[in-house]
Every structure is written in C-alpha cells, then in structure tokens.
UniProtKB/TrEMBL annotation:
InterPro entries: BlaI_family, WH-like_DNA-bd_sf, WH_DNA-bd_sf. Keywords: DNA-binding, Transcription, Transcription regulation. Gene3D superfamilies: Penicillinase repressor domain (1.10.4040.10), Winged helix-like DNA-binding domain superfamily/Winged helix DNA-binding domain (1.10.10.10). It comes from the Bacteria. This is BlaI family transcriptional regulator, penicillinase repressor. Belongs to the BlaI transcriptional regulatory family. It comes from Terribacillus halophilus. Signal peptide: none annotated. Pfam families: Penicillinase_R. GO terms for biological process: negative regulation of DNA-templated transcription. GO terms for molecular function: DNA binding.
Length: 124
C-alpha cells in the first residue's frame, strides 16, 4: 500500500527536485542550487520549513549545520500528484483523461504505440 503523500505546491516541487538530485543538502546549498531561479534565500528557507512541517522533508540535526533530505521518493510524489489531478479534473477516471488526449491528437504515433505496448503488458 502506498504511503499517503502530502500535497506539495509548485514552488515546493522545485525544492524537492533539488533534494532528489543531491540530498542531503544544507539550506545554503539549496539556496545556491536555486540561485538561477532568482528566489530570495528567505523564500527558500520558508519552503524548506513548510516541507519539513508537512513531513515531506526530513532534517538531520546531528551537525551544527542542519541538512535536509526527502522523506518520499520522486515517483511516490509523482503518483500522488497524478492521482490528485485525475480526481480533480477527470472525476477520478483515467479513461476520461486518456480519451481526451487521444481525441485531441495530443499523442504522437510513437506515443500511442508505446501506450498500446504498456496496456498489453499490463493486461497480461
């Protein structure tokens, strides 16, 4: 059974991406990694604090400088976000979402072939 992953905002996703790539990191290292995003250090620290309170990020307090690390795998968060999206937008029915993508030609031939292969594999 999958863990119940708390909802995370778009900004929090950016913090999580940095942590998934390089954790554990100090707050300063996260700030440095997001320097090109032009975020203020205080904003990043606030987001880290929020993620810690949501129990999405853990904190190692053994050293003088705290380091942060993800408590959920990226795939767990992606699954939770996808389920939330399908529930909100498509009434919890993946078939409705897939039908819309297929009807609007949002899928290339290659993507449709890959999807067919996944469905065949899932059906076995």
């Amino acid at each position: 059974m999958a863990k119940n992953v708390p909802n995370i905002s778009e900004s929090e996703w950016e913090i999580m991406k940095v942590l998934w790539e390089n954790a554990p990191l100090t707050a300063n290292e996260v700030v440095e990694a997001l320097a090109k995003a032009d975020w203020k250090p205080k904003t990043i620290r606030t987001l880290l604090d929020r993620l810690t309170k949501k129990k999405v990020v853990g904190v190692n307090k053994e050293h003088r400088v705290y380091s942060f690390y993800p408590l959920y795998a990226e795939s767990e968060c992606q699954r939770a976000e996808a389920k939330s999206f399908i529930d909100r937008i498509y009434g919890g029915t993946m078939k409705s979402m897939l039908a819309q993508f297929i009807e609007e030609d949002a899928l290339s031939e290659e993507e449709m072939m890959e999807l067919r292969q996944m469905l065949e594999k899932k059906g076995k």
